[in-house]
């Protein structure tokens, strides 16, 4: 009985546990500084455990809604005008699993990388609060509460970007991001006001049935798409991304990347699960596709000519966001048509599969280049060579991530990109060829980077030791990439397809 109650409350525990430990760490850190590391790791593990509990229940039993202030999740409570509701379905499980994998591994990496950093308790607190905000965005079933978690994520992540407060550039990057996020928050709140003023509801279930496609609806939805496109690093709203990644502490880059994924998950929940019922799905799909094409092309081209190895990965990250947007956009255009069965469902599947794939191998790439910069003291590829001989394990990890992001068979990135090729080609042959061309550019870019940085002189052997937790983190990610490369069909059939069905269930 008690365990059943714990399971039903797991969506809340996923937020409550890191929030509680964030408070404990900042309070106790003043008196028991050594205990903060243990508390941080314990918070990561415990939160990830309840993510697993929720996922197991959803995949083996059924999805459910957790309604605050109600004893039971009855239909009238779930669709109440005023209740706060968290939705535990296959789509939110996919999101929380993806986020938890990266948060746990990046947190372990942070322990080694930031161990001697002053005020580490503040870093741990901001890390956990950012995780709380991301999970809140993907679990909530209410537009105003989405705004609340949107703001929590923004404030905490700005603190992480500005953590190196002795660096003027870090403060500048955080301030730029904060100003853009404040503007985005204002537009988001304005959109919420427009929708509430017209329909009198904010619950996703009620709102999806109330939207009629009026001018006010279109204006509000347009603002929401722009806001989340900006927060998702989509071109042309990506200009904050290089500064934020470049000036934040090393381990924060993959966490920012997974924060971006959280905004993407929320965007897809809104556009497909809420807006597409009253607005033309085809128009929404074309908008998402356009953002995808721009992000793919600009990200791949900018990565090709950059000398900063970390920013190369940043721009490649933007290009991968483009793949996801393009695939989901194709699926969105087919909702409610005969094309959905032909290639629309495959497009959704490929886009969501690429999200979890990309999160893992992109984090591996980030941690690899951060480790190189940590040991060698530079991120300029022109000042690096022979890394393969000096840091062999890190080099192997980078190579695994590079081959996967390049769509090289049989690595996991190939399988999700191959599905994207098929679905986009079925939609329009030129679009399919464009995705293949972009992948070719990415492959050439990674080959060029590998030959410059990792091959070359064997001299000047590095003697600086890499903390074991950093190596363990990269090993875990490389292992996951290999597992996904071996059993992609199981990942798709058991995790991705149910998530697509949950997301598109109203059509």
Give me some keywords for this one.
507 residues, globular, mainly alpha, 2 strands, two-stranded antiparallel ribbon
In short:
With 507 residues, this protein is mainly alpha-helical.
Polypeptide structure, described:
The chain is mainly alpha-helical and 507 residues long. The protein has a domain at 280-507. 76% of the residues lie in helices and 2% in strands. The protein has helices at 2-8, 10-28, 35-60, 75-78, 90-113, 120-139, 143-161, 168-199, 204-210, 215-231, 240-247, 252-273, 281-304, 309-333, 339-376, 387-390, 392-405, 412-427, 429-453, 468-486, 488-503, and strands spanning 64-67, 85-88. The protein has a two-stranded antiparallel ribbon. Helix 10 (215-231) packs antiparallel against helix 12, helix 17 runs antiparallel to helix 19 (429-453) and helix 18 crosses helix 20 (468-486).
Arithmetic mean pLDDT: 88
The general outline is globular
Number of strands: 2
Strand percentage lies at: under 5%
Overall helicity: over 70%
Distance between the termini: 36 Å
User: What about the largest sheet?
Assistant: 2 strands, antiparallel
Whole-angstrom Rg? 22 Å
- Which structural class is indicated by helix and strand composition? mainly alpha
Low-pLDDT runs: none
Q: Specify the number of helices.
A: 21
N to C succession of SSEs: HHHEHEHHHHHHHHHHHHHHHHH
Which sequence of strands runs across the widest sheet?
A: 1-2
Write the layout of secondary structure elements.
Elements (H helix, E strand, L loop, with lengths): L1 H7 L1 H19 L6 H26 L3 E4 L7 H4 L6 E4 L1 H24 L6 H20 L3 H19 L6 H32 L4 H7 L4 H17 L8 H8 L4 H22 L7 H24 L4 H25 L5 H38 L10 H4 L1 H14 L6 H16 L1 H25 L14 H19 L1 H16 L4
Antiparallel strand pairs: 1-2
